[in-house]
């Protein structure tokens, strides 16, 4: 079973940046479409960015122009710029559509 481990979250002021990383125990990032999801308190988990096995990228409207998803053979990344308080959430990586057990996620808090 593939295990997913997210890292890189933290507390950042509005307008700041963070770079999230995701490591997987298997070679999934170039095999499947993969992406970053997030779940804010009291809300459903949502997909914010996808990178296809071929390298194309797609973003939720809330992420367009501010987030960039990328990958290498070993990891998946999410560069987040111009962060807003509404970006506060726990961020997870998984296949798109998801197929693996969810990792613990990494908390992103955007607050002054």
Structure description:
With 112 residues, the chain is mainly beta. Helix content is 0%, strand content 46%. The protein has strands at residues 4-7, 10-12, 18-24, 34-39, 46-51, 57-59, 67-71, 75-80, 89-95, 106-110. The strands form two sheets. The chain has a six-stranded mixed beta sheet, with no helix packed on it. A four-stranded antiparallel beta sheet has the order 1-3-8-7, with no helix packed on it. The protein is globular, with a radius of gyration of 13 Å. The N and C termini lie far apart (40 Å).
Summarize this entry quickly.
The chain has 112 residues and is mainly beta. The protein has strands spanning 4-7, 10-12, 18-24, 34-39, 46-51, 57-59, 67-71, 75-80, 89-95, 106-110. The protein is built from no helices and 10 strands.
Primary descriptors:
single chain; 112 residues; mainly beta; 6-stranded mixed sheet; 4-stranded antiparallel sheet; globular
């Amino acid at each position: 079973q593939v295990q997913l481990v997210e890292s890189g979250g933290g507390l950042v002021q509005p307008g700041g940046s963070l770079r999230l990383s995701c490591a997987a125990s298997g070679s999934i990032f170039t095999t499947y479409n993969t992406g970053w999801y997030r779940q804010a308190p009291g809300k459903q988990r949502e997909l914010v960015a996808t990178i296809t096995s071929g390298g194309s990228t797609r973003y939720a409207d809330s992420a367009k122009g501010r987030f960039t998803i990328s990958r290498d053979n070993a990891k998946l990344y999410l560069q987040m710029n111009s962060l807003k308080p509404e970006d506060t959430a726990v961020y997870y990586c998984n296949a798109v559509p998801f197929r693996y057990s969810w990792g613990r996620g990494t908390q992103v808090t955007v607050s002054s």
